[in-house]
Amino acid sequence: MAYRPKLRVAEAEAERAIQHCLNTGNDFNFAQWSGPQLARTEERLERWYMEVVEILNEVFTTPGMSERFLQNTLDASQSQSSEQEKHYLSIKGTFDHRIAWLRRLRETLAVYVIPTESKPDALNTIQLICSRFHTVARQLRQRHDGRSTLDVSDEYDVQDLMHALLRIFFDDIREEDSTPSYAGGNSRIDFVLKAEQIIVEIKKARPTLRARELGEELIIDIARYQTHPDCKLLYCFVYDPDGYIRNPQGIENDLARDGDPFPVKVFISPKSH
Q1: Domain spans of the chain?
Q2: What are phi and psi of 75, to 5 degrees?
Q3: From CA 50, how far away is CA 132, in angstroms rounded?
Q4: Under a CB-based contact definition with an 8 Å cutoff, are residues 8 and 61 in contact?
Q5: Rounded distance, CA 134 to CA 140, Å?
C-alpha cells in the first residue's frame, strides 16, 4: 500500500506556503511570452518550479508531493501547430496543470494532516494502574529461580511500586510534597502530578488502619489537600491485599466527591480475596 505523505507543519502554515506558490505563479503573464522573451521567461518559470518543489519538500514528510507536482505536464507533440507553437503550448499547458494541481492541494490539505496522538486521560490512566496494582504486585513475587524481588509488605513498598508504574505514563511526578497545616498538623502528599494537577494519596490497609480509621484519615487529608495549589483532584488509592476493609465499595461511595469545587476519587483494591 502506498505511503500517503503527511504534513510536517500545521495545516494553516501549509496553506500559507501553498498560497505563496500560487501568488508567485500568478505573476507570470503568458500574453507577453513571444520571441526573445520566451527563453527568459522559461528560465524564470524553471526557478519558480524549483521553489515550489523546495516548499513542498519542507511542508510534507516525503518528496512524493513535489514529485506529483512535477508529473503534471502537457504533451503538445500531437498538435498540428508549428514547432514554436507546440513548444509554447507545452510550456503554457504544463504551467496551467501545475497551478490547477496546487489549487486542489490547497483545498484538500486537511487529508494530509497527521492525526494528533491521543493522550490517555490522566484519571483513567491512574484508575487503570490502581486496578492492576495487585496483579502486578503478585507477579513480582514470581521471579526466575526464586530471585529476590520487591515484596509489597508495607506502605513504603506500595509507594515505591506505584511510583514506578506512574513513571510509565507521567513525566513530572513530585514526591511527598508538603501540604499546608490543618488542625494543628502537617501531612505529606505521596505523589503530585503537577502538569495534570492531580494528587495521588497512597495508603495500605493494616490491623490499625481499617475502615473507620481509614475514613477518618481520608476526611482529614481531603480537607488539607483542598488548599494545595497543584491539586484540582485528589485520588486516594488504598491497597488492601489482606482484606482488612470489609465493605470497600461502601467506603469508596461515602468518601468520593464528584464535580466542583474539589472532586475526590477513592479506590480500594483488591475487593475480593
Answers
A1: 11-112, 122-269
A2: -95, 110
A3: 56
A4: yes
A5: 10
CATH 1.10.10 corresponds to the domain 122-269: no
Sheet holding 233-239, edge to edge: 173-175, 191-193, 198-204, 233-239, 264-269
How much is the pTM?
0.55
Contact (CB, 8 A) for 241 and 137? yes
The one-letter code for the residue type at 29 is N
Angle at 62 between CA 59 and CA 66, to 5 degrees: 70
Mean pLDDT by 10 residues, the chain (273 residues): 74 92 85 65 89 94 90 83 81 91 91 68 91 90 78 88 93 71 54 91 87 83 83 92 88 82 88 63
Amino acid identity of 168? I
Residue 86 CA to residue 97 CA, distance in Å, equals 16
